[in-house]
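User: Design a sequence. Structure:
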């Protein structure tokens, strides 16, 4: 038996050396060790005893292993996605793309959705959960990601409306799609990353050439042929890439609007055809 509150305080103090969110990390790890939800843990921590597994989970986090890989999931938008090593972890910043889509389609709903670089199904499954009449396709070059995306679709009850297939961005894909979502790699090859990311997440989902723009140069010119009238393509960008990616999009014939994330950073470009 042990005091959960005291254990959380001690773990958070230690995790502050490796995490920007040490208390949250400690709570998620404790809830996972107790096989309960974080909100139930916080509602009445006195009803629980510190489990033997907790210290080992904290040690893994102290070694910079991402919490999502330790607990096996990440909550995103309105859904919970299973995650595991080898597949990119969904980021809260990427919810900006779904917010932009909801705003664009206010009063109507997209019917066909394409998610390029779907990973564990992040953007496609969030969109399908938002629009119950929609169906869509997720593309990824990673076989591991596609297996996980299909598992997530099944777990969320969305498998009948989601299809996942291997691909090289949009090559060989036929439209039209009302909504195209894409979170491509956009980190420059020489950019330093936090140890959590650099040591554990797949480099192919992160890096995109000397300036981080290689994949935008490949993706954007191919999107006009896939976009339905009044549709939108929404791409995630790095916080300093607004002008550079907007220029590539404009050269492909798009009108561009930038959306900012909750940290007030440039995060998504919403593209439409005039």
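Assistant: Done.
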């Amino acid at each position: 038996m042990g005091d959960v509150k005291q254990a959380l305080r001690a773990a958070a103090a230690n995790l502050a050396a490796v995490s920007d969110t040490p208390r949250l990390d400690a709570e998620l790890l404790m809830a996972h060790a107790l096989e309960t939800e974080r909100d139930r843990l916080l509602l009445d921590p006195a009803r629980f005893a510190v489990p033997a597994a907790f210290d080992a989970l904290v040690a893994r986090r102290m070694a910079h292993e991402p919490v999502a890989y330790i607990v096996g999931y990440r909550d995103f938008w309105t859904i919970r996605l299973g995650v595991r090593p080898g597949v990119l972890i969904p980021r809260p910043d990427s919810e900006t793309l779904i917010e932009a889509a909801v705003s664009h389609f206010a009063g109507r709903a997209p019917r066909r959705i394409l998610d390029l670089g779907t990973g564990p199904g992040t953007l496609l499954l969030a969109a399908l959960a938002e629009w119950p009449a929609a169906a869509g396709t997720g593309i990824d070059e990673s076989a591991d990601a596609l297996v996980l995306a299909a598992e997530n679709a099944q777990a969320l009850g969305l498998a009948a409306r989601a299809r996942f297939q291997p691909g090289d961005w949009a090559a060989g894909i036929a439209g039209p799609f009302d909504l195209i979502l894409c979170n491509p790699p956009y980190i420059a090859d020489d950019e330093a990353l936090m140890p959590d990311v650099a040591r554990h997440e797949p480099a192919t989902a992160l890096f995109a050439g000397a300036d981080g723009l290689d994949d935008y140069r490949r993706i954007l010119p191919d999107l006009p042929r896939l976009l339905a009238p009044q549709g939108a393509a929404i791409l995630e960008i790095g916080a300093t890439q607004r002008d550079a990616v907007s220029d590539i999009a404009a050269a492909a014939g798009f009108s561009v609007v930038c959306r900012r994330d909750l940290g007030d950073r440039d995060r998504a470009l919403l593209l439409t055809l005039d």
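The chain has two domains: 4-63, 86-273. The radius of gyration is 20 Å.
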